[in-house]
Structure formats: structure tokens, C-alpha cells
Specification:
- Belongs to the enoyl-CoA hydratase/isomerase family.
- With 150 residues, the protein is an alpha+beta fold.
- 22% of the residues lie in helices and 37% in strands.
- The strands form two sheets. Strands 2, 3, 5, 6, 7 and 8 form a six-stranded antiparallel sheet that branches. It has a two-stranded parallel ribbon with strand order 1-4.
- It starts with a strand and ends with a strand.
Length: 150
């Protein structure tokens, strides 16, 4: 279910609330390869399925930053602001990667609006994202993502 708001200022009134859970997203080897090309991180645990099969994770895994980079998609999946000028990635307060994401697995994010406050430059919102792995016991990523709505 998507939380719908009229303006970014409406975020202030719902701070502390869980906004929803995204749909499952399958992580493919092609995504991992494209991310490796975009970032230059071609470490074999991500890009060499034959070698990775004998490595510590018994197969290739997604880059932690690939998982984190899904934050704008995750937030947009659970939050719709009708009168939106822009949503700017402003920063991160805390990020951890407790568990690897095996290629071929599915992940989803539970999104909570931790805080929202009016600043001179707009509404600053801090979203808590916890990425779950289908069938996993530990989260893939836990992050506090800061978004500025000018």
C-alpha cells in the first residue's frame, strides 16, 4: 500500500510512522554486472560466477551499494507526494550491510519515516530502510536515508 500525501510538508505530521513495504525485487547477475561497470567494482565475488561458486558465499553476491542504491525506488514504491517539485538525495546517516544478497534472490524494503522537519531549503526527511532477503534471517541492509524536498 502506498502512503499518499499532498505536499512534502505533510511528511512532518506523519514522522515516526512505517510507510510500507515494497514489492519483492529479484537481483540478477545482469544488474550486478551493470553496477560493476558503472562503479568500476569488478571484484570476483560479484562478477565471476564460476570462481564465486567456490568462494565464501557459494555464488555471486550483489554489491552492498547496489542494494543501497535502490533507496529512491523503495521510497517511491511506498510514498506518493502529489505536489512534488523534486526529491533530492541529501545523504546517509547510518548504513550497515549485515547479510550478503545472493544473485538470484529477492529483496524488499520496509520503509519508515523516522523524522521530517522544515528547514530553510525545504523539508528534510530521514527514512529508515530495512532490506529483507526472501527466506533470510538477517537484513541485507539497514540505512537511514536523508531526502530533501525543496
Amino acid at each position: 500500500m502506498t502512503t499518499q500525501l499532498d505536499t512534502p510538508a505533510d511528511l512532518i505530521g506523519i514522522a515516526g510512522r512505517q510507510l510500507g513495504t515494497t514489492d519483492w525485487i529479484e537481483i540478477t547477475q545482469q544488474q550486478v554486472e551493470l553496477f560493476a561497470d558503472a562503479t568500476g567494482d569488478h571484484q570476483w565475488i560479484h562478477t565471476d560466477p564460476a570462481r564465486a561458486a567456490h568462494g565464501p558465499f557459494h555464488g555471486t553476491i550483489a554489491h552492498g551499494y547496489l542494494t543501497l542504491s535502490l533507496a529512491p525506488v523503495a521510497i517511491a514504491d511506498v510514498l506518493e507526494i502529489k505536489e512534488l517539485t523534486a526529491a533530492l538525495n541529501y545523504g546517509l546517516n547510518r548504513v550497515r550491510f549485515p547479510a550478503p544478497v545472493p544473485v538470484g534472490s529477492k529483496i524488499r524494503a520496509v520503509v519508515t519515516l523516522n523524522t521530517a522537519q522544515q528547514k530553510t531549503s525545504g523539508v528534510e526527511a530521514v527514512f529508515g530502510l530495512t532490506y529483507e532477503i526472501d527466506g533470510g534471517t538477517r537484513p541485507a541492509c539497514v540505512a537511514d536515508v536523508v531526502v530533501l524536498y525543496p
